[in-house]
């Protein structure tokens, strides 16, 4: 067994699993596992608390000089651990396998120490972080240091002002567009009324002319 975070076959980043702990909420941590050899390397992830964590993939084969991402998800918890301390641990086992081996082809004794294969192991600790701690860290980074925090705040303020100005301009343009539509509708309704009135006058004129024609044509 070798030190935390790396062994002769693979390297693991980060070397500690850190989860933001919130009641009734899941949290996850990604591990990057890299094959440092010219061989195909199979790995398997084990934990002391398998019911608390969901690991995908928990077993896989990495090609030479390649890498993969393991996502470890902390299931939603109903109570806080004492003093936010976590005693859970993870163990990542790795071993060389024949070229072009698929994960489904791995023998059941691949990660058994008595199988005669060279099996390397790497232990990973687990720590919980409260959301308030991360918030204080971000606020500290925004107010301390080389002034980048004040620049960030001023940038955010400027973006908010530009957003408000854009929203106000959009509302003004929408109001002007509504006024144009309203005037156009009024003009169209006025023209329609004029045409109807002209048609009615013309029709009345035709009727009167027809009556006069009948009156003049009738015998006295």
Description:
The protein has 220 residues and is an alpha+beta fold. It is 38% helix and 28% strand. The protein has a 5-stranded mixed β-sheet. The protein has a 4-stranded antiparallel β-sheet with strand order 1-3-7-5, with no helix packed on it.
In short:
With about 220 residues, the protein is of the alpha+beta class. Helices cover about 40% and strands about 30% of the residues. The longest helix has about 70 residues, at about 150-215.
List the helices and strands and how they pair.
Elements: E1 10-13, E2 16-20, E3 27-35, E4 40-47, E5 53-56, E6 59-62, E7 67-74, E8 89-97, E9 120-129, H1 131-143, H2 148-217
Determine the N-to-C terminus distance.
Answer: 134 Å
Query: What low-confidence regions span 5 or more consecutive residues with pLDDT below 50?
Result: none
Determine the mean pLDDT. 81
Q: How much β-strand is present in the residues?
A: 25-35%
Please provide the count of β strands.
9
Order of helices and strands: EEEEEEEEEHH
- Strand order within the widest beta sheet: 2-9-8-4-6
Structural class: alpha+beta
Shape call: elongated
**Could you describe the largest sheet, including whether it forms a barrel?**
5 strands, mixed
Calculate Rg over CA atoms: 39 Å
Give the helix tally.
2
User: Fraction of residues in helices?
Assistant: 25-40%
Pfam family, one: Motile_Sperm
Keywords: Coiled coil, Membrane, Transmembrane, Transmembrane helix
Family: Belongs to the VAMP-associated protein (VAP) (TC 9.B.17) family.
GO cellular component, one term: endoplasmic reticulum
């Amino acid at each position: 067994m070798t030190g935390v975070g790396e062994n002769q076959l693979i390297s693991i980043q980060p070397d500690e699993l850190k989860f933001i702990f919130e009641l009734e909420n899941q949290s996850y941590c990604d591990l990057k596992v890299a094959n440092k050899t010219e061989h195909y390397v199979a790995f398997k992830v084990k934990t002391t608390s398998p019911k608390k964590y969901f690991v995908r993939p928990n077993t896989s084969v990495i090609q030479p000089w390649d890498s993969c991402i393991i996502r470890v998800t902390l299931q939603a918890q109903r109570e806080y651990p004492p003093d936010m301390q976590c005693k859970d641990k993870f163990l990542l086992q790795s071993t060389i396998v024949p070229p072009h081996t698929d994960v489904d082809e791995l023998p059941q004794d691949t990660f058994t120490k008595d199988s005669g294969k060279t099996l390397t192991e790497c232990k990973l600790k687990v720590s919980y972080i409260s959301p308030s701690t991360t918030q204080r860290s971000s606020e500290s980074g925004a107010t301390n240091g080389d002034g980048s925090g004040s620049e960030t705040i001023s940038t955010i303020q400027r973006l908010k002002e530009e957003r408000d100005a854009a929203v106000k301009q959009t509302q003004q343009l929408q109001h002007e567009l509504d006024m144009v539509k309203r005037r156009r509708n009024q003009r169209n309704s006025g023209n329609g009324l004029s045409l109807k009135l002209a048609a009615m006058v013309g029709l009345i004129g035709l009727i009167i002319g027809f009556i006069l024609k009948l009156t003049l044509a009738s015998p006295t």
